[in-house]
Amino acid sequence: MNARDKLTPRGLSLEFSRHRNAPKLAAIQRGGRHEKKLKESRQPRDHHHRSAQQRSQTAHTGAGQHDQRPHVPKRRRSPQRRRRHLARRLKHPLSASAILAHVLPDGGGDAENPQRILRMLTSYGVFAEHLINADDGGVSQQRKFSLTEIGKTLVTDQNGLSCGPYILQHHQDELMGAWPMVHEAVVDPTVAPFVKLNGEPAYEYYGKKPEMNGLMQRAMSGVSVPFMKAILDGYDGFEGVGRLVDVGGSAGDCLRMILQKHPSVREGINFDLPEVVAKAPTIAGVSHVGGDMLKSIPSGDAIFMKWILLVWTDSECKLIMENCYKALPVGGKLIACEPVLATKSDDSHRTRALLENDILAMTIYRPKGKNRTEEELRQLGLSAGFSHFRPIYIDYFYTLLEFQK
């Protein structure tokens, strides 16, 4: 991350988490240097016992014999590991000037402007602000900042995941440039504004740009893995399932997590487009199958779908769910994870986030794909032949929908 990137809101939060414990580390390092000096002082000073010829040779060459030994660098943690290590030990707030000193260790910059950014992020709950009495007897106060629980989601965890890539991915020029064209989805709902701006659908566009595609994959993992953990902790519907099909399973990460949590699932089928599953890694107990969900779906005791229906039209969703129905035995179930809109709009954070996500899908992916209400999803299931419907609100943003045959 260069200096310019470090001065972005996310960059500040990451650098803050990386260096917050710097005073403690400095003390440890000073202690290490002191110990090293003590060890050196105990070594015999053989320089004065060497012959005049040896001292003359040393002076001539400019180095003693022991200085010519190859230098073996100490093993150091990678920057990512250091960030994780320090983030777990965040204790003391830092001032804007202290944060800036870590962001720009060679000096320069203006601490007043980062403080303005930090205060703005505090109003969004990313940082907590602390007014601390200065060393002048309390006459003045110093403003310091610490990460909140929201801010910590931008810090890479022990599994290398965070919400940071999701934020970065959704602020790329290719996506941001589509927002001023959102009216195009009204004028011509057959083509997404993203396509009109960039010339091709988002997934095809990303597939040709490895760096962007990598960021998108990290973004999806950053939000998908925590949600899957919440599902596995709060839902027992996978018990008793022998063969589980994941429709649109990509690399098979969800199936991997499900099989680890539920060993009773004997076989997992990761079903996606042929070009997608061709790159999927080998996973114990999982078979990768290529195909088209609009044509047919492999049979199983249960079918799992995550974030699939929101990018398809009502008629396409009905067709996908009918194919699921055909692939299930009597008593089998379709387990779908989807955002569920409130029946009536309100000004809550949840409703606002879901509606913003709905417009995102319309602008970037498909104008006729959409988020739906609980009743709209229930009606889709009934129209496909399912007789029972059960919504389970697992997460603040996404809902588990169980359709039984």
From TrEMBL:
<keyword id="KW-0949">S-adenosyl-L-methionine</keyword>
<dbReference type="Pfam" id="PF00891">
    <property type="entry name" value="Methyltransf_2"/>
</dbReference>
<dbReference type="InterPro" id="IPR016461">
    <property type="entry name" value="COMT-like"/>
</dbReference>
<dbReference type="GO" id="GO:0032259">
    <property type="term" value="P:methylation"/>
</dbReference>
<keyword id="KW-0808">Transferase</keyword>
<keyword id="KW-0489">Methyltransferase</keyword>
<dbReference type="InterPro" id="IPR029063">
    <property type="entry name" value="SAM-dependent_MTases_sf"/>
</dbReference>
<dbReference type="InterPro" id="IPR036390">
    <property type="entry name" value="WH_DNA-bd_sf"/>
</dbReference>
<dbReference type="GO" id="GO:0008171">
    <property type="term" value="F:O-methyltransferase activity"/>
</dbReference>
<feature type="domain" description="O-methyltransferase C-terminal">
    <location>
        <begin position="184"/>
        <end position="387"/>
    </location>
</feature>
<feature type="compositionally biased region" description="Basic residues">
    <location>
        <begin position="71"/>
        <end position="92"/>
    </location>
</feature>
<feature type="region of interest" description="Disordered">
    <location>
        <begin position="1"/>
        <end position="92"/>
    </location>
</feature>
<dbReference type="InterPro" id="IPR036388">
    <property type="entry name" value="WH-like_DNA-bd_sf"/>
</dbReference>
<protein>
    <submittedName>
        <fullName>Caffeic acid 3-O-methyltransferase</fullName>
    </submittedName>
</protein>
<dbReference type="InterPro" id="IPR001077">
    <property type="entry name" value="COMT_C"/>
</dbReference>
